[in-house]
Amino acid sequence: MKGSGGIDSEVVMPYAQALMSSAKSQNITEEIGTDVRDLLRLLQDSDQLQNFVANPFVKEQDKKRVLEQVIGDRVHPYLRNFLRILVDRRRIILLEGICQQYLNLLRQLNQTVLAEVTSTVELSRNQRQAIKDKVKAMTSAREVELDMKIDSELIAGAIVKVGSQVIDASLRGQLRRLSLSLTSGS
Predict the structure, then answer these.
(1) Average pLDDT across the chain, whole number
(2) Fewer CB within 10 Å, N or C, the chain?
(3) DSSP for 85-154?
(4) Measured between alpha carbons, how far is 103 from 110 in angstroms, rounded to an integer?
(5) What are phi and psi of 160, to 5 degrees?
(6) Is 90 left (phi over 0), alpha (psi -120 to 50) or beta?
């Protein structure tokens, strides 16, 4: 269901742009963004829902009924209608990719960058703010959105990825750099 590369992204982009265009015309880009984030979380937390949505043997009206039950009135009517259109066009299988692409478009609109942060433990508000400030300084973005992940395999610290740039502030990264400098110095 990922729409992050290849043919999927070519199919996903026009739908994400259409949703963005509708949202802009109604001045609800942020509201739709919040709903899309919730929808993504719902999909990522439920393999059962993902499999149901992706199953080509499930009838369209059944998919619509289940989506209505799952999301109810929690999302904006524009988004609910958009989901119905995706089902009708047999594109609901691309929902996760479309959601991710919409959020990319929203970040571009708001001059926001996404920083993927992997740490050993949950970071405090101050630590998250320090990362945002560092990323803002690096990228000259107006805003920074953090995508937090916990990885107990890391040895202290954090790894921050912004686009193709990686800042490895983990202890393992520091040790690796130290061992490289020791071997190249001898």
Answers:
(1) 83
(2) C
(3) HHHHTT-GGGHHHHHHHHHHHHHHHTTEEEEEEEESSPPPHHHHHHHHHHHHHHH--SEEEEEEEE-TTS
(4) 10
(5) -115, 125
(6) left
What is the total residue count of the chain?
Answer: 186
Closest to 113 (Cα-Cα) out of 164, 158, 159: 164
Domains of the chain: 6-108 (1.10.520.20), 112-185 (no CATH)
Mean pLDDT of 52-62: 90
Q: List the structure tokens of 20.
A: 């963005």
**Each residue of 149-185: b (16+ CB within 10 Å) or e?**
eeeeebeebbbbebeeeebbebeebeeeeeeeeeeee
Question: CA–CA separation, 45 vs 74, rounded Å?
Answer: 17
Instruction: Give the residue carrying structure tokens 């001045």.
Output: 27
For 23, other C-beta atoms within 10 Å of its C-beta total 25
Tell me the residue type at 108: Q
pLDDT tens string 97-110 = 999 999 999 999 98
What is the side-by-side strand order in the sheet with 165-168? Answer: 143-150, 112-119, 158-162, 165-168
